[in-house]
Amino acid sequence: MKKILFASSALVAVAVAGNAQASEKIQLEVGGYMEQWAGFADQDIGERKNAFQSDTEVHFKGKTTLDNGIEVGAVIELEGETSDDQIDEQYLFVNGGFGQFKLGKDDSAADSLGITAPSVGPVGVNDGDLTNWVDAYLIDTVPSSGDQKRVTYFTPNFGGFQAGVSYADDSGSNNNDTATGGDNIVSAGASYQADFDGISFGVSAVGENQGEGNWYGVGANVGFGNFTVGSSWGHIEDDYAQGKNSKTAGDTDAYDVGVSYAMDAAKVSLTYGYAEYGNRKVGSTSATSTGEVSTVDLGLAYTLGAGVTWKSSIFWFDDEADSASIADNDGYGAVTGLVLNF
């Protein structure tokens, strides 16, 4: 808590340096997105989970520049439909020659800086929407702690290089495991992105500590002409984000590899993901299972107009769990729908 108070005081000191005063109050602008999907799936263990899916958020954003040149702003993201927290993210940011500070409920630095294989479809193979349609283990090479009340710092961009670090304490107001007292979360990452004579290049190294363990990973993308190819890998230690009395099964290794091609208003991608997991939850207990899963996604994204994109996925998966409490499963499916950005 003392670290959070210190960081908060530092932000205030930076914002008011030189007795700078904003000429006008911050005016919030409205934005966000709406995704509406229809699809079908066939899987061994039963019927498809859904025929329709949707995801909608309304974003309120605003900023102002103080007389000393420092930019201060706010972001509030409202969930369009939820059975849990109505507010998705809410934080303030302070930008200047020193970089950027963010304070509030937000994703971690590792999540922001991590690079994964290119994928344009609505399902994907890496932290996508596969589990909205079928029962399978969800591959994730950047398994960050999600939205937490935290402080984050990003360095300035030095010729394409940028680094960041986040800290969330073990407060019960966070989304940590409060039954075991929660854990501090330290997240960090670095990325480098640049263009060289028509060839774009991006690479990242990210990681996070929570509880007695860590996760970490790397990723890279290369673009040339209309093509982009890339891959990422992530490793989760068996005691990452686990309380003192939790049962763990083993480490998890995951990777993805993919290629995309852009042609005028359309993009297509083909992506493969694989995980040898040791942290799959078994029912409502704290026990976890080992196993392996493979997923393939063929995606399409076509821009119909300003803020309107048609997206589709054809996917296949094969999930083999080692626990008798989790049935092996494989299958395929197709999903299509519209994304509206406003």
Automatic annotation (TrEMBL):
Domain Porin as annotated: residue spans: 7-313
Main location: membrane
Membrane topology: Multi-pass membrane protein
InterPro entries named among the record's database cross-references: Gram-neg_bact_OMP, Gram_neg_porin_domain, Porin_dom_sf
Signal peptide: 1-22
Assembly and binders: Homotrimer.
Alphabetized GO MF terms: porin activity
PANTHER family: MAJOR OUTER MEMBRANE PROTEIN P.IA (PTHR34501:SF9), PROTEIN YDDL-RELATED (PTHR34501)
Pfam families registered for this protein in UniProt: Porin_4
One GO CC annotation: cell outer membrane
UniProt GO BP: monoatomic ion transport
Top-level taxon: Bacteria
SUPFAM superfamilies with a match to the protein in the record: Porins
Key words of the record: Cell outer membrane, Ion transport, Membrane, Porin, Signal, Transmembrane, Transmembrane beta strand, Transport
Keyword Membrane: yes
UniProt subcellular location: Cell outer membrane
Protein name listed in UniProt: Porin
